[in-house]
Design goal:
heterodimer; A: 273 residues; mainly alpha; 2 domains; 10 helices; 2 strands; 71% helix; globular; B: 266 residues; elongated
C-alpha cells in the first residue's frame, strides 16, 4: 500500500531528513545528539503548535533532552516524534509529553545497537573492502564507490525510516484513539522508557575511584573495590539520583555541569579519580 | 610550509563540514580523507594508497558510545601530508598514524568543555521558544565554534609537527587531562538525570532498576534488555485491558446502570 502525503507532510519529512544530517554539529557529552534532535523538529513544532505558544515552548525544551542513537536509525525516532507531536497538538490532554519522551527513549537504545553493528560491522566492511582494493592500486573509483555505497545506503535507510516512523506513529496513535486505549499505551510506554533508561545509564555512565588508601603494615584499601562489593554501579546510581535531586531543587543543568568538571579536575589532582 | 599547513587546515574544515551536514561516517573515513588530502597537495596517488592502508588499519577501531580512541580524520590528513611534503617512508608513517590520531583525540578531549558550555544557552533559547536564536546558535556551532579549535590544531600540528604538539599538550598537568576524560562518563549522567526526572513515575520507577540490573549484573546487551522491556510493556498492557474489561462488565451489571446511564469511570 502506497501512502500519499500532503504537501506539508512531504515538506516536513524532507526537513527531518536534511536537518538530521547536522547531528554531530552540536554533539556533546551531556545531551549527545539531543540539541540537534530539537533543531530537526523545529519546522514541525512551529507548524503544529501554531497559536499554542505554551505547548510549543514545552515541546521545544523537551526535545533538547538527551538523545543518542545511530545517525541513520534515528530516522525512525524522528518520524515517530513527528506523528506524536502532531497528535499532541490536536489532543494535548490525551498525548502526554512523558509518553512522547518514553517512546523516543525506548526506541533509541535498541536502534543504536542494530544500526551501529549494521553499518560499522557489515556495510562499512563490505564497501571498505571494495574501496581499499581499488584505491590501493591508485584508482580514485575506490573512493567514489566507498562513499556511494556506504554513504548512499546510510541516506536511503534514514529516509525510509523517517517515512516508516511517521506512518507507524500516525497509524498506531489514530488506532489507539479510536479504541480508547491511549491511557494504557501511555503506561506501557512508561515501563519501556524507564527500563531502557536504566539500562543505558548502566552502560554509559561511569564513575571510577581508583584511589588506594594505605592502611599501614603493607595493607591497603582500594576504594572502588569497597563500593563494588556493596553493589556494582552504586556510585553511578548515586551520581544520577544526586543530580536528579539537584535539578528538583531548581539547579540549572549548566551549574551541575560546571560542578562536575571542577569536581573531576580537583578530584583528579588529589588522586581520587 | 605555511601554505601547505593552510591547505591542510582547509581540508580538515571541508571534511568536518561534510561530516556535520550529512552525519554519515563515509566522508570522515581515511579512504576519503587521505584521497582528498593527496588531491589538495597535488599527489592523489599517494593519498589513495595511504587511504587504503589507513582504512584497513582503522576498520578495526570504531567509536563506542561516542568515544573514539584515535581520530582517523586528522590522523589521515597529517600522515598523508607527512609523506607527500617530506618524502618520508610511507610504511614508517603508516605505523605512526594511530599514535598521531591518539594525540589529536587528546586535543579533542581538551577542547570538549567548549561544546558543553553551549548547553545552557541552547536550553535557555528553547525554554523561551526562541527558535530563531536557537537556529542561529546551531549554525554558529556548526560553522565556527566546533570546527575552529580543531582546525587550528591541525594547522599548528602541520607547522610545528605532531611531536611538538605532543610536547605542548604534555606541558599541561596530567591531572587536568585525566580529570577531563573521567568527567565524560559523569557528564552523561546530567543528560540522563534530566531525562529520568522527566519520565519518572513513582509506581513504575522500579522498572528503571530492573533495566539497570539487567546490564550491570546480568551483562545483557541493550537489544536483550529491549526484548524484556517490550515484554514487560505488553504484559502490563494485557493486564490493564483485562482490568478495564472487568470494570466495564461490573459497571454494566450495577442496577443503576442497567437502564443505560452514563459511565462512571469513563
Amino acid at each position: 500500500m502506497k501512502k500519499t502525503y500532503t504537501p506539508e507532510e512531504k515538506k516536513n519529512l524532507r526537513h527531518l531528513f536534511w536537518r538530521s544530517g547536522h547531528f554531530w554539529a552540536t554533539f556533546n557529552m551531556v545531551k549527545m545528539m539531543g540539541q540537534t534532535y530539537a533543531f530537526c523538529l523545529f519546522p514541525i513544532l512551529n507548524e503544529v503548535y501554531a497559536g499554542k505558544e505554551d505547548l510549543r515552548r514545552e515541546a521545544m525544551l523537551r526535545n533538547t533532552e538527551f538523545f543518542n542513537c545511530n545517525a541513520s536509525m534515528s530516522g525512525l525516532c524522528l518520524g515517530v516524534s513527528y506523528a506524536l507531536e502532531k497528535e499532541r497538538a490536536a489532543n494535548p490532554d490525551s498525548v502526554s509529553p512523558q509518553m512522547i519522551t518514553n517512546i523516543k527513549t525506548s526506541l533509541m537504545g535498541p536502534l543504536a545497537a542494530i544500526g551501529d553493528s549494521l553499518f560499522f560491522n557489515c556495510i562499512r566492511v563490505i564497501s571498505g573492502g571494495i574501496g581499499i582494493a581499488l584505491a590501493s592500486q591508485g584508482n580514485p573509483l575506490g573512493v567514489v564507490l566507498f562513499v556511494a555505497i556506504y554513504g548512499g545506503l546510510f541516506l536511503v535507510l534514514k529516509w525510509t525510516l523517517i517515512k516508516l516512523g511517521y506512518g507507524l506513529g500516525t497509524n498506531v496513535i489514530t488506532e489507539a484513539f479510536h479504541s480508547g486505549i491511549i491511557g494504557m499505551i501511555t503506561q506501557s510506554a512508561c515501563i519501556m522508557g524507564l527500563m531502557m533508561v536504566g539500562a543505558l545509564v548502566a552502560q554509559m555512565v561511569s564513575v571510577q575511584i581508583p584511589l588506594v588508601v594505605p592502611m599501614g603494615g603493607g595493607a591497603e584499601m582500594v576504594v572502588q573495590t569497597i563500593f563494588d562489593e556493596i553493589m556494582p554501579g552504586l556510585l553511578e546510581l548515586g551520581l544520577l539520583f544526586g543530580i536528579v535531586a539537584l535539578l528538583k531543587r531548581k539547579w540549572k543543568p549548566i551549574t551541575v555541569i560546571a560542578l562536575i568538571l571542577v569536581m573531576a579536575i580537583t578530584g583528579s589532582f588529589f588522586g581520587i579519580f | 610550509m605555511l601554505q601547505s599547513a593552510l591547505i591542510l587546515a582547509f581540508v580538515y574544515y571541508i571534511v568536518y563540514l561534510l561530516d556535520c551536514s550529512m552525519a554519515w561516517d563515509a566522508t570522515w573515513r581515511p579512504l576519503f580523507v587521505a584521497f582528498l588530502t593527496g588531491l589538495a597537495l597535488g599527489d592523489m596517488k599517494t593519498g589513495l594508497i595511504m587511504g587504503a592502508s589507513l582504512e584497513a588499519i582503522y576498520m578495526g577501531i570504531s567509536a563506542i558510545g561516542g568515544v573514539i580512541p584515535s581520530d582517523p580524520c586528522s590522523a589521515s590528513i597529517l600522515s598523508v601530508a607527512f609523506v607527500v611534503l617530506t618524502g618520508a617512508d610511507l610504511n614508517l608513517v603508516l605505523a605512526l598514524a594511530v599514535p598521531i590520531g591518539t594525540v589529536m583525540q587528546y586535543v579533542s578531549t581538551l577542547i570538549s568543555p567548549i561544546d558543553i558550555s553551549l548547553v545552557g544557552l541552547f536550553e535557555k533559547f528553547a525554554r523561551e521558544g526562541k527558535d530563531k536564536s536557537y537556529t542561529l546558535l546551531h549554525y554558529a556551532s556548526l560553522f565556527i565554534i566546533r570546527p575552529l579549535p580543531k582546525t587550528m590544531v591541525v594547522f599548528l600540528a602541520a607547522v610545528l609537527g605532531v611531536e611538538n604538539l605532543q610536547a605542548v599538550t604534555n606541558l599541561l598537568p596530567a591531572f587536568v587531562m585525566n580529570g577531563l576524560s573521567v568527567s565524560g562518563g559523569m557528564l552523561v549522567a546530567v543528560g540522563f538525570a534530566i531525562l529520568t526526572s522527566m519520565i519518572w513515575s513513582k509506581e513504575l520507577g522500579i522498572y528503571f532498576f530492573i533495566g539497570f540490573a539487567c546490564v550491570k549484573f546480568l551483562h545483557l546487551p541493550i537489544i536483550g534488555v529491549s526484548i524484556f522491556a517490550l515484554a514487560a510493556a505488553i504484559l502490563n498492557y494485557t493486564r490493564q485491558s483485562q482490568i478495564k474489561k472487568m470494570k466495564d462488565e461490573i459497571i454494566a451489571q450495577l442496577p443503576e446502570n442497567q437502564e443505560g446511564k452514563e459511565d462512571l469511570f469513563g
